[in-house]
Amino acid sequence: MKPMKTLTLLCATVAGLALTGMTGAAADLKAGDPAPDFKLQASDGKTYSLADFKGRKAVVIAWFPKAFTGGCTAECKSMRADGAALKKFDVAYFTASVDPVDGEKGNAAFAKSLDLDYPILSDPNKNAAKAFGVLNEKGMATRWTFYIGKDGKILHVDRAVKPASHATDIAAKLKELGVAEKK
């Protein structure tokens, strides 16, 4: 390819990414990168931040697109049904979306409808979703799961989540990553 053509293609690609909001480190978070800090209200009425866990325990955040939809319901049910596999590890785990906490279609109502025993983080202003690079063109989160070490660095990003087996998949990945089991 000729240098000028290559430069034109590169500029067009960067411009396209800028228009979709997919520029910068957020879209490319990978193992070893510092995880973006967040402070989000959850379905259990508490507010959580990554700083709460730094130096104490690993964190898993499983982003999903929208409460009360098929795939998201299957994913959250999996994490409840097979939660014992996750509770073996010294980890704080959450699902998260850009849905509000409150309201008929909010995450608190969604968590209650599924009788969840873990919190769903709500990011209605979408700042954390943008920082993690999961905000898609529809304004919803992409179904990606982030594994964050005690040191606040990303251990792994799962971009191929299988909703129906997500809890057991997370437990297997935690084991593979060497996350400590509870004593």
Q: What does the model show?
A:
By secondary structure, the protein is an alpha/beta fold. It has helices spanning 3-20, 70-81, 83-87, 107-113, 127-132, 166-177, and strands at residues 39-42, 47-49, 58-63, 91-97, 120-122, 145-148, 154-158. The chain has 2 domains: 1-29, no CATH class; 31-177, 3-Layer(aba) Sandwich (Glutaredoxin), CATH 3.40.30.10. The protein has 6 helices and 7 strands. Strand 4, helix 4 and strand 5 (120-122) form a beta-alpha-beta unit. The relative contact order is 0.21.
Keywords, separated by commas or semicolons:
Glutaredoxin, about 180 residues, alpha/beta, 2 domains
Helix content: 25-40%
Counted by DSSP, the helix tally is: 6
Low-confidence stretches are: 3-26
Kindly identify the CATH topology of the largest domain.
Glutaredoxin
**Order of adjacent strands in the largest pleated sheet:** 2-1-5-4-3-6-7
Dominant shape:
globular
Oligomer: single chain
Structural class: alpha/beta
Short description:
The chain is built from six helices and seven strands, in the order αβββααβαβαββα.
Give the topology, please.
Elements lengths: L2 H18 L18 E4 L4 E3 L8 E6 L6 H12 L1 H5 L3 E7 L9 H7 L6 E3 L4 H6 L12 E4 L5 E5 L7 H12 L6
Parallel strand pairs: 3-4, 4-5
Antiparallel strand pairs: 1-2, 1-5, 3-6, 6-7
